[in-house]
Amino acid sequence: MKDTVTGSVAAAYLTLLQSRGVDVIFGNAGTDFSPLIEAYAELAQQGAKVPAPIIATHENLAVSMAHGYGMVSRRIPAVMVHVSVGTANLVCGAMNAARENVGILLTAGRTPLTESGRLGSRDGYIHWAQEMYDQAGMLREIVKWDYELRGGDQLETVVDRAVSIAA
User: Any idea of the CA torsion for 159, 120, 49, 98, to the nearest 10 degrees?
Assistant: First the structure.
């Protein structure tokens, strides 16, 4: 049965992760994190239970902490990193976790899809400079599944599949 989640896609994402047993997100924030930061603030005001955010000073540190957390807790942690170089910086840590069969939900930001007409459209130079044709390509040989979420209507199906595969 599908859950009904209202509000922003970021708030729905955090709520879904928590309801699927993901209780922590290790991250190294970038320009693409503002919706999640706003969702954390909004959900905190509502008293909602969401995954605990743990900030790391580098992406490799974030994925390494998630690796250790997953090994000890036997739970699935999430990692979120910045666009392009953030993804590149987590590759070695992700490879280590994969070799030890430790499930981690790896997520990375992407540049906005549109140049205008939608909340979050490209509005700064960085949105063009950080675009990668195939950002997930650098991880494809070490992850069990990759998917680029392009719309909130896919959120629940994608989160459920990702968590199921990581388990």
Answer: 40
The amino acid at 105: L
The alpha carbon of 117 is separated from its chain's Cα centroid by a whole number of angstroms, namely 24
Domains and CATH numbers, the chain: 9-166 (3.40.50.970)
Can you read off the two tokens belonging to residue 141?
Answer: 């040989």
Predicted confidence (pLDDT) per residue in 109-137, tens digit? 876 666 666 666 666 666 656 676 787 88
| CA neighbor of 54 nearest in space, from 94, 21, 27, 22 | 27
Dihedral pair phi/psi, residue 53, rounded to 5°? -85, 130
Q: What is the pTM assigned to this prediction?
A: 0.85
